[in-house]
Write the structure tokens for this entry.
Amino acid sequence: MILIGIGGNLDSPRFGPPRETLTAALAMLDRESISILARSGLYRSEPVPGSSQPWFVNAVISVATKLSASELLAKLQRLEMRFGRVRGERNAARILDLDLLDYEGAVMHTPTLVLPHPRLHERRFVLVPLVGIAPGWQHPILGVSAAELLARLPPDQQVEPLPC
């Protein structure tokens, strides 16, 4: 299973508010040799760590691709740039964020890629949508399901489902 987290909290000059931007990004992924197999609902979530920036819209998708993990990450980062993502300060507000969460259970730590995503097990905004599409997914290092990881989190991170 290959999992990608998708989110954003700034309007895109080209695509509009975050919800519309995420929808456009999902459509573009399908044209980039990345087939979406499953898609969670959209969720509204507070910034983590807490700040005064706008709340995010988040989702998780499961995909199929012939790209390697590093090729997929590079493609995701190019897509972020096409949407106007400017990389700067960590945890800053952004138009589009595409995170490679897991690549077929691989465990990697290179200068450009860490798998599984190093903070996915701490983030309700990732685990809630992940449980929606793959509750039995097992964290490759922790050996714990997504549903169990979510149950372990304190309830302090607010995540709300958005209507379809």
Observations:
- The longest strand covers residues 56-64.
